[in-house]
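Re: the 191-residue chain
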Amino acid sequence: FGTYLYLRSGPGNGQAFAHYGFVSRNNVPALTNWTFEARLWGFTSTSTTGSHMALGWLSGSTSSPSDQSPVAGLDFHIGGGTLQTSFVWPGGSCGLTSDSSGIATAFDSSVTTPVHVAESYDGTTVRGFINGTQVCSQATSSAGLAAGPFGFMDNAGLAQGYFDEIRVSSVARYTANVTPPTQRFATELTR
């Protein structure tokens, strides 16, 4: 797919990013229906107590975003408590099968090729997909999203990870199992 983003902890000292990542400069607009999708692979955790990461709609504001309690997207609990990655949305969540450090096995360090990860909401149901296969679904009428910061933030947990083709859409692109896209995503945010 061309260029991808590779994040890795500090050189030589084994320290993770400690609240680093990438965040939208402006808020993503409020969305009644939505899809968040990305290609992810090769994630490794430093597994320190209390570590967490978030990819998607972050809590807080663009001037002070937070990886704690993300609004929608992926929530990584990778140190202390239940070690698990989950799809999250307003009022709900769906745990993904995760390795011993809390990273979803679908895109952990054993995975060396991009994995399509998508979460969508059509106004009645939130659905999560891994490589086109629906892995969770929950009926709800309250998963619309307020305007807010979007991105990836890490609180001392990511040792490395690959990101490619991150897209936000104002439509529910996936409502059933699909063949994952194999070409670059069209320019988004779709309005």
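The chain is about 0% helix and 45% strand.
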